[in-house]
Design a protein that fits this description.
- This protein has about 180 residues and is mostly beta strands.
- It has one domain.
- It is built from two helices and nine strands.
- It is elongated, with a radius of gyration of 17 Å.
- The termini are far apart.
Amino acid sequence: MRYTRSAVCAATCAAALAGLTMSSSSAAAAATPAPWTESFVMTFQSVHGIDQPTHVAAVGPITGAGLETQSDQDTPTGEVVRFTWHLRDGTVTADAIEQYNFTPDYRSCTAKATGTGTWTIISGTGAYTGASGSGTFTDDGSFVGARDGHGVCNPNVEPMLSVFVLRGSGTAAVGGSA
């Protein structure tokens, strides 16, 4: 199985959102940028090497559900990911530094991945203009590899299925004169 960040990032949105309660009030409208608890879940899925839309749900000063886009860069200290949440009331862009472990099982043609890291908000638009914040996250994923015509696991091609869930928490603030 060839393991790129897109293959390592995957999961079903329904499973991740099952335990997440969304607030109907818009904390993003706060006039003063006081830091409050921020929690979010991002879900990733890749089928036959084709990434599906990445979903995000956030609760706190930044509240909403939408899609996530990202770019990745491997560094000696870990992978740096710049991600942007595209929410109804604006966007939030943050940098995340991740360390992750990957454990393949070639006999069953499956793999597991786990990771931890930190995130820092670098900008926001719309209701999230002036956003700031930081925190930590954990993630875990499962992979089902492709087999060749003889039933042998083929580690040189994209997995048949990758699912991944990332859960983050920390503090965030929006509004004011940042």
